[in-house]
Amino acid sequence: MRQPKLMLFVLAITCLVSACSSSGTDKSMRPETPVEAPDKDQVKESLNNDVHSYSSEGYIEKFSYIKQLSLEKQEAFNRFKSERNLQELYDFTPEDMVLIYLYCISVGDPELIYEITFNGGQLPDRDKFRNDYFEYALKYDSETAIHYRYYDSIKVDESTAEENKITVLITVSIETMTHSLALGLQKEDQVWKLDIYQSIKNYMDKASNNKA
């Protein structure tokens, strides 16, 4: 009779230890105080913070001005990049060419910019253009490419349009402010090219004046 009682006693002790151990585990997994759900204002603020943080480096890597073109024109531009054949750009509108230009400055490629820049007898040779661009214009252009990646509209300014000369306006709204960038284009070699070399020269003059 003593042996069964002893077994029952051991079994009871085992169950008690097990229950205490289980209770201790539950307590460690459960927070001491309940977590309150955030109110709507907190959620809105969190989302706004996420938008601002996402709009920096991560977003730039995913956004591409070229992807704003039709798939057919994206393919034509890719052929132009590899072959440098201007015929690939014959059907591109002035707005399309502005997007290409913004893409080129966003990736810092002066070789491509040279190809789509209006010459008119004013451009230097390719090497000087590249050196001048890297030294004087790259910083400003990079800021422009970042600033206008959220553009609201891009369109030809019909009030200034001429047969082979045109201005494209690209507009962006940031909070309560609206900014517009006017880019002139002229038709050359059957392609709408960016008339931007004067702005590069302006950057050069500005740098020269600062040194003086």
Q: Can you describe this structure?
A:
By secondary structure, this protein is α+β, with helices and mostly antiparallel strands. It contains 8 helices and 4 strands; from the N terminus they run αααααααββββα. The protein has a 4-stranded antiparallel sheet with strand order 1-2-3-4. It starts with a helix and ends with a helix.
Order of helices and strands: HHHHHHHEEEEH
Helical content stands at 55-70%
Q: How many strand elements? A: 4
Query: Radius of gyration, Cα only, in angstroms?
Result: 32 Å
Give, in spatial order, the strands making up the sheet with the most strands: 1-2-3-4
| Low-pLDDT windows of residues | 8-13, 15-61
Integer average pLDDT: 79
- What would you call the structural class? alpha+beta
Give the topology.
Elements: H1 2-29, H2 40-54, H3 57-62, H4 71-83, H5 94-106, H6 110-115, H7 126-147, E1 153-156, E2 165-174, E3 177-188, E4 191-194, H8 197-211
Antiparallel strand pairs: 1-2, 2-3, 3-4
Helix pairs in contact: 5-7, 7-8
Keywords:
212 residues, alpha+beta, globular
Summarize the structure.
With 212 residues, the chain is an alpha+beta fold. Helices cover 56% and strands 14% of the residues. The longest helix has 28 residues, at 2-29.
